[in-house]
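Thread: quick sanity check before group meeting

JM: Hey all, I'm pulling together slides for Thursday and realized we never actually wrote out the predicted structure for the chain we discussed last week. Dropping the sequence here so it's in one place. If anyone has concerns about the input, flag it before I start.
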Amino acid sequence: MSERELDHEKPQQQAEILLTLAVSRAEGAANQNEGRSRAQTEAQTVAQIQARIEGWRGKLEWNPQLSQLTTAALNSDDENVRTSAIEVQLAAYGLKKNDSTVDALVRQADAYNHKERIWAMWTLGLLGNRGVETDRVVQVLTAHLHGSGRGSATDRELHDSDEDVRRWAVEGLALVGTSSTIAPLLEAMHNDPSPLVRESAACSLAQSGMLTHERRLTAVPQLIIYSDDPALDAQTHAWAFQALSDITGQRLPNDSGSWREWYRTAVVSGQ
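JM (edit): ok, ran it. Output follows.
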């Protein structure tokens, strides 16, 4: 479809067409030449999304089709495709990328309505990724992960005892994807009483969310420690090994000694 043809489509169709193209072109190519061609067309598609995003804001319907496409885009190996998915979600929600929006979401994160709370956690992550009050967003999400949201001690006990809220705080931190999110994700993986939250934190460190490969690598030393930490159960040890494999691309045995030796020789020695 040419750009002129695309202009004749409604914003909803434009967004769905371009996201479909971005996701499909981000998939692996059969050969090197095809890979270059896909990369070029993918870059053009992402550029079209960025050029049209403001015109779409408030004009998109958050329907199952758009939800499915953004989920696929957020799972792409290409960072630009994932970023496009974030921008489309914010446009579909009709949210402006400013401090006032963050203020409203911070208040909503303390609401008693469960659905409103977890939506706020996710959306704060989207905004934090796009550079809107990122430090504050990380602080707010970390506070809810620790069960220290606003309100009285009784309110906090009622609110943040909910493992689903803490899991979505983890998802929000993963979306932000800055270096400052590594520590709270590692802490959640080690200390949270819920296996669901610990698994989500491990996945966020390993491959989901918006952390770059370089940032994920910084978690490797602590993950090696977690792999045989006697304070952790066998399942969390397994998640640590899986995260190490996903981050590094190494297929070593689930043995802490092997990983320590690899890290010593391959990373510390700079090989």
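AS: nice. The chain is about 70% helix and 0% strand. The chain has three domains: 1-94, 95-203, 219-271.
JM: adding both to the slides.
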